[in-house]
Amino acid sequence: MFNYISGKLISKNPTSIVIDVGGIGYQLNISLNTFQKLPELESYVKVFTILIPREDSIQLFGFYDEDEKFMFDQLLSISGIGPKLAQSILSGISPDELRDFIIQGNSIALTHIPGVGKKTAERMIVELKDRLTKISPPEKVISKDIEDIRVQAYQALITLGYQKQIAEKAIRIALNEINSNNEELTIENLIKKSLKELNK
């Protein structure tokens, strides 16, 4: 029904936003990935949408880019994954990383995502691997080295005394920044940016 909504960003939090379009406020559920990319309040914003009808309500989900919207839609095609879990998954990992782990068949990395157990991770791989391989450019498939760098950075932050959830969030934000800027991913760069985020 709706492909996207554009208007003034009235309110935002890590799970939802309100966009004013011609005097009507649309509330959309969002992931943490989308939240981190949003502009300041009162700014113009465009988000891609998926409308999910329920017996007692209609849920509108918003995405900062079409890639995240696509991956959300793919997740919904998997038995046992509903909108809330799909939203939670995309709050714990970027769409690119999720796609790469599925294509690699890396179930261990997938189980590190909040809400994803072993069986869910295996279903994601079985049901989506071939489909995503056919539509994903080969150059987007990353090696296991990236997961190794993530783990090393995480262990370094834990050694420095940071709590697990805080360290994971900082690494996720740092990875998004590195990917957005097309920077080289090294353990040194990831730790440096993670510490910068932690010291804000």
Description:
The structure is a single chain. The chain has 200 residues and is α+β, with helices and mostly antiparallel strands. It folds into 3 domains: 4-63, OB fold (Dihydrolipoamide Acetyltransferase, E2P) (Beta Barrel); 66-140, 5' to 3' exonuclease, C-terminal subdomain (DNA polymerase, domain 1, Orthogonal Bundle), CATH 1.10.150.20; 145-198. 52% of the residues lie in helices and 19% in strands. It is built from 9 helices and 5 strands; from the N terminus they run βββαββαααααααα. The longest helix is centred in the middle third of the chain and has 18 residues, at 118-135. It is globular. 30% of the residues are buried. The model is unreliable at 137-143 (pLDDT under 50).
Kindly report how far apart the N and C termini lie: 40 Å
CATH superfamily of the largest domain: 5' to 3' exonuclease, C-terminal subdomain
User: In what range is the share of β-strand residues?
Assistant: 15-25%
Count of DSSP H/I helices: 9
Topology as H/E string?
A: EEEHEEHHHHHHHH
CATH topology call of the largest domain = DNA polymerase, domain 1
CATH class of the largest domain equals Mainly Alpha
Query: What is the total number of structural domains?
Result: 3
User: Which spans have pLDDT < 50 for at least 5 consecutive residues?
Assistant: 137-143
The biggest sheet amounts to: 5 strands, antiparallel
CATH architecture of the largest domain: Orthogonal Bundle
Q: Percentage of helical residues?
A: 40-55%
If you compute it from the alpha carbons, what radius of gyration comes out, rounded to the nearest whole angstrom?
17 Å
Q: What overall form do the CA principal axes indicate?
A: globular
Q: Estimate the mean pLDDT confidence.
A: 87
The counted number of beta strands is: 5
Structural class: alpha+beta
Side by side, the strands of the main sheet go 3-2-1-4-5
